[in-house]
Design a protein that fits this description.
This protein has about 450 residues and is an all-alpha fold. The protein is about 65% helix and about 0% strand. The chain contains 18 helices and two strands.
Length: about 450
């Protein structure tokens, strides 16, 4: 019974399709008749076919394309291509050719993903070579299409509305065009998501949540992983991921670490996954999350130590001390980088002495100023000796710091003479140091200033 039902349904469908075809044919005939009537012609459904003799087995590859661009253009003219079409074909072809040349032959700063600051020589060389390639491209198009080729430069082809990421070099530069386009699409979608989130947070008067930012970046990574192989994905992340950017900034503030490509890659591999997990816990305040974040940070330090090795990790740790970086800068400026350790010890000792002087409550502001200046000169001399340079001549003697002022409180029977005998000073010196005090009316409890003895030795510098 089932086959009869199927047959009836099939018959009904065929009848419906036939009816639709007849109605559309009548409508087409009516439109055709109206059009010919408007032109003053007798309606007819007969058609006349113009036959043009062409070679059989026509092949675009063998009959049109050519390794020589001049021949290629001539062949396009021979088959009747419009001028605008020829321009579009040739411009697109040459642009693709030079885009590939730039991707494979230019060594750009983006390819040196391990550097915190671009190498000026690399930037200048890439700029010069890119300019030469552009001149070559424009010259070739002018020879092939004439001087006015730019007036029709790809007018019929879409152009990207926003710049994307640069995909050049030996890993990303060789990707197929459709793969590169997929990467650009993913990158632009990622930008859109990030901007939408940041704008929403701004409208709500809230700061961006680091955990949410980490989730958005992970979504982009997941999409890239479906397009790129693991080595290609790592190259992309080394250039453009937030983890790599943060790592470059970390190394950059050290100034003198000068990490190699192998060191940067090893550290990135060691800490990338940990950094993502730490970001997800950035704003967590519960004890469990705080403890987990601390454990991850300790794990990250251990992973970095393993990736760099003991010696380089110790250098990395020292360079995190601003005083050591200053010592390195001074040693580099003096042309003796090997003296950095000695200068660091001098600077650390001077810094400790500065703190002691500033915190000494028994010294006046003037005394502290003199002692700090003296310390500065001593540090300069020590650094000069550490760098192997001649010590500059001694500056003029600084004035001795003033003696601390002594005060004597009078007791019963004390006079200027007894005080003078007590301190080994002439009575006139006692009176001169207290011009506002009437020594004829002294009473117990009066305070008398005791001047420094002219016979006391000058304080040693």
């Amino acid at each position: 019974m089932r086959w009869r039902l199927v047959a009836l349904v099939s018959l009904g469908v065929n009848i419906a399709l036939t009816a639709v075809w007849l109605l559309s044919t009548r409508s087409l005939s009516a439109r055709f008749a109206a059009a010919t009537a408007a032109l003053g012609q007798t309606p007819t459904l007969q058609t006349k076919t113009n036959f043009v003799a062409r070679r059989q087995l026509f092949s675009w590859h063998s009959d049109v394309e050519s390794g020589d661009y001049a021949t290629y253009v001539a062949n396009l003219h021979d088959i009747g291509c419009p001028e605008q079409t020829i321009r579009d074909i040739i411009i697109a072809d040459i642009n693709t050719l030079y885009s590939r040349k730039r991707a494979l032959e230019l060594v750009t700063a983006d390819q040196q993903w391990w550097r915190s600051q671009p190498d000026p020589d690399v930037v200048q060389t890439a700029t010069d070579k890119a300019r030469a390639m552009e001149d070559e491209r424009r010259g070739l198009l002018t020879r092939l299409l004439g001087t006015n080729w730019e007036t029709g430069d790809l007018v019929n082809l879409p152009r990207p509305s926003r710049p994307g990421v640069i995909l050049d070099g030996p890993v990303l530069g060789v990707l197929a065009m459709d793969t590169k386009q997929s990467i650009q699409d993913i990158s632009l979608r990622s930008q859109d998501r990030l901007e939408a989130y940041l704008n929403a947070q701004s409208r709500a008067g809230k700061e961006p949540d680091p955990a949410m930012l980490a989730k958005l970046r992970q979504q982009t990574r997941d999409e890239m992983a479906h397009v790129l192989s693991p080595p290609q994905l790592e190259e992309f992340l080394l250039r453009y991921s937030q983890s790599a950017n943060d790592l470059r900034a970390d190394f950059g503030q050290l100034r003198f670490f000068d990490q190699t490509p192998d060191e940067f890659r090893a550290v990135f591999r060691a800490v990338d996954a940990l950094d993502q997990r730490i970001e997800l816990l950035a704003n967590a305040t519960d004890p469990s999350s705080v403890s987990q974040r601390k454990a991850l940070e300790n794990q990250r330090d251990a992973a970095m130590k393993t990736a760099l090795g003991q010696k380089r990790y110790e250098e990395y740790q020292r360079l995190n001390d601003p005083v050591f970086r200053d010592a390195m800068a001074a040693a580099e400026e003096a042309g003796t980088p090997e003296a950095a350790g000695t200068m660091y010890a001098i600077m650390a000792a001077a810094q400790a002495e500065q703190s002691r002087i500033r915190g000494d409550t028994n010294m006046s502001a003037a005394q502290k100023s003199i002692e700090l200046k003296r310390l500065e000169l001593q540090q300069l001399q020590a650094n000069t000796m550490a760098s192997g340079r001649d010590v500059p001549p001694e500056p003029p003697d600084l004035p001795a710091p003033p003696q601390p002022r002594k005060v004597y409180v009078l007791g019963p029977g004390d006079t200027a003479e007894t005080i003078a005998l007590m301190y080994g000073l002439p009575g006139s010196a006692i009176r001169a140091a207290n011009p506002n005090l009437n020594f004829k009316k002294l009473r117990p409890g009066d305070a008398v200033i005791i001047p420094p003895s002219p016979l006391s030795p000058r304080s040693a510098p």
